[in-house]
């Protein structure tokens, strides 16, 4: 109601001038110029007032969206059971704080479990699906003994969400998803539903792990009753696992050229020992530079480096054996690393 007060006063003043002021009743040139100036001033004031009101509401909406995103896609712990962790998200919508990508890292009695996913579409429309899947993963990762059971839980959570929120278009919605488990001895296993396989960074060697064909994206076809995780090898001390959504490898520059992700990773690991935060900063900087700050699709990055960091299970802070400095030109991305 308060936002209507000033426009109402201005409008009443203009009407009063037109009806009560003798000058407004005259038809001479000077009188018409004065009357036009009065109404022009009133109209300009109304436009500026509406503009300021809309900008204020937009800033408030962005603050609310940012708070919601931070609460849902909360910063991962900087260290979990010997793994140095860093993550970031680059939303595709200019000025947006909410994207359609999801990630999470949790320490469980079965090992460190991570999820990386990409919801069909982006922005606010994908936010509900992200919330449903992350909420389910944070429970199932602790409850279920094997990754197959975790994935079945996620499939049921997605189906419930689509039935409740989008009954008419549920058949068209899907999510690509990668589940990874890293055990205490460094052994890695994974289940992949239509998602890009991760890269292993070992010293200056960069290799994409692709042990098997992925399952279809979650929500396209029902999963098999029995799901066996595939091996990704071992993560040795100083090695890193780089998880990402396809927005990273599909990002294009102004000339339509794809982002050279393997080459960028190779340049990012030249300095040793590896640091998750340093690699993250360099890759996000290169992505934003390649796309001139405007990726066409949401991008999420998650890096897990096996280090000597120590923490309580699931703790959010730790001391690492290689506290590398961040890159000089850290990107203006939604950086969720601690």
Key features?
single chain, 338 residues, alpha+beta, Phosphatase 2c, domain 1, seven-stranded antiparallel beta sheet, five-stranded antiparallel beta sheet, 8 helices, 12 strands, elongated
Task: Explain what you see.
With 338 residues, the protein is α+β, with helices and mostly antiparallel strands. The protein folds into 2 domains: 2-65; 75-335, 4-Layer Sandwich (Phosphatase 2c, domain 1), CATH 3.60.40. It is built from 8 helices and 12 strands. The strands form 2 sheets. Strands 1, 2, 7, 8, 10, 11 and 12 form a 7-stranded antiparallel beta sheet that branches. The protein has a 5-stranded antiparallel beta sheet with strand order 3-4-5-6-9, covered by helices on one side. β7 and β8 form a beta hairpin. α1 runs antiparallel to α3, α4 (127-143) packs antiparallel against α5 and α7 packs across α8 (276-290). The longest helix is centred in the N-terminal third of the chain and has 44 residues, at 29-72. Residues 312-332 have low confidence and may be disordered.
């Amino acid at each position: 109601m308060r936002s209507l007060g000033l426009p109402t006063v201005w409008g009443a003043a203009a009407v009063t001038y037109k009806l009560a002021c003798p000058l407004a009743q005259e038809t001479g040139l000077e009188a018409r110029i004065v009357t036009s100036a009065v109404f022009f001033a009133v109209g300009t004031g109304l436009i500026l007032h509406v503009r300021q009101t809309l900008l204020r509401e937009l800033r408030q909406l962005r603050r609310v969206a940012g708070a919601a995103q931070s609460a849902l896609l909360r910063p991962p712990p900087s260290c979990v059971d010997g793994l140095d962790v860093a993550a970031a998200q680059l939303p595709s919508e200019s000025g947006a704080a909410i994207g359609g990508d999801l990630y999470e890292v949790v320490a469980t009695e079965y090992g460190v479990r991570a999820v990386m996913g990409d919801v069909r579409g982006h922005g606010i429309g994908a936010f509900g699906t992200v919330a449903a899947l992350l909420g389910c993963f944070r429970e199932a990762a602790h409850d279920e003994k094997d990754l197959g059971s975790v994935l079945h839980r996620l499939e049921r959570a997605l189906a419930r969400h689509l039935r409740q929120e989008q009954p008419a278009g549920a058949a068209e919605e899907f999510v690509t998803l990668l589940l990874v488990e890293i055990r205490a001895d460094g052994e890695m296993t994974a289940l992949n539903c239509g998602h890009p396989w991760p890269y292993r960074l070992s010293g200056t060697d960069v290799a994409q792990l692709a042990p098997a064909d992925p399952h279809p994206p979650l929500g396209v076809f029902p999963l098999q009753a029995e799901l066996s995780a595939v091996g990704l090898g071992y993560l040795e001390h100083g090695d890193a696992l780089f998880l990402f959504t396809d927005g990273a490898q599909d990002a294009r520059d102004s000339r339509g050229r794809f982002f050279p992700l393997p080459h960028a990773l190779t340049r990012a690991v030249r300095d040793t020992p590896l640091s998750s935060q340093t690699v993250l900063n360099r890759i996000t900087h290169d992505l934003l530079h390649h796309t001139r700050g405007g990726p066409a699709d949401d991008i999420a990055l998650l890096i897990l480096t096996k280090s000597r960091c120590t923490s309580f299970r699931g703790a959010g802070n730790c001391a690492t054996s290689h506290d590398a400095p961040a890159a000089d030109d850290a990107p203006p991305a939604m950086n969720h690393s601690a």
